[in-house]
Amino acid sequence: MSFIQITDTHFVPGDALLYGTSPRKRLGAGVDLIRRFHGDAEAVLVTGDLAHHGEEGAYETLKEALAPLEMPVFLMMGNHDSRAPFRKVFPDAPGIEGGFIQFSLDVAGARVICLDSLNDAPGDHEGRLCDVRLSWLDRELGSVPADRQVVLALHHPPFDLGIPAMDRIKLRDGEALFEVLQKRRPAQMLLGHVHRPISGHWRGIPFYLQRAFNHQVYLSFADRKEVEFVAENPDIGIVRTSEDGIQIFTRSIGGEGEPFPHEEA
Ligand SMILES: [Fe+2]
Predict the structure, then answer these.
(1) Neighbour count for residue 44 (Cβ, 10 Å)
(2) Do the strands 103-107 and 110-114 form a parallel or antiparallel pair, or are they unpaired?
(3) 255: pLDDT strictly greater than 90
């Protein structure tokens, strides 16, 4: 059983370029890859920064780009998103009181709880989880059957990664989130925002952070003041579940090649 994670598609309207590449073309290649190799995935989850400037036209282009996928697609908010234009284009998207785009999925045998960490202060890229969102999470965690694995998806990492420009805009409410998670610790967290593939654990909770689709963050642990980007091939995350646990694979776009047989030397 599996589902797909992609993140940080940063759509702009139509065929416009962003940092010299076309978000539409890049995601189009990802959609082709999913259709070709992973048609049995139960869902596709996009973990935020769907659009770069959060405008309606970008969400319309995203909707067109995702249309060839045959499995359900679930869309989350990131710091570049805007809820009102998103809702205009995706009126059936699930949500909770306060207009937050939070929801739970029963997919691949797991309960995937998707949080909305978009900051309500315009232009502030730091992530937030207010009392409304955390109270909902608390209730949701309390409702998961004991035999069902919990996967927690949110855009902003709630901890420092040692990449200073991104650490400055992490989730501000990490301590409050950690406290709520003591009710039921997730088996896995899925993150976005940092535009780099990173795995590890946060105080014992495993996380996987998926590489961004259009542009990647330059990997440097020096304090470079401003975030800088670099062009790398995007990839998709394939989240596979079993009774024994969870495994996450990546498949790259543009480098998959054809399989060839083993030969003895
Ligand atoms: Fe992003």
Answers:
(1) 22
(2) antiparallel
(3) no
If we measure between CA atoms, which residue out of 20, 84, 78 comes closest to residue 231? 20
CATH numbers and ranges of domains, the chain: 2-252 (3.60.21.10)
Question: 102 — phi, psi (to 5°)?
Answer: -115, 145
Tell me the CA–centroid distance for residue 221 and ligand 1, in Å: 18
Which residues, at least 6 apart from 117, have a Cβ–Cβ distance to it below 8 Å? 48, 77, 78, 79, 127, 128, 129, 133, 154, 155, 156, 171
Give 41 Cα–ligand 1 centroid separation in angstroms: 24
Please state the pTM of the whole predicted model: 0.96
- The DSSP call for residue 99 is G
Q: What is the CA(51)–ligand 1 centre distance, in A?
A: 9
- Ligand 1 centre and the CA of 8: distance in Å? 5
Which whole number is the average pLDDT over 27-44?
Answer: 97
How many angstroms is it from 27 CA to the middle of ligand 1?
14
Calculate the CA 6 to chain-centre distance: 6
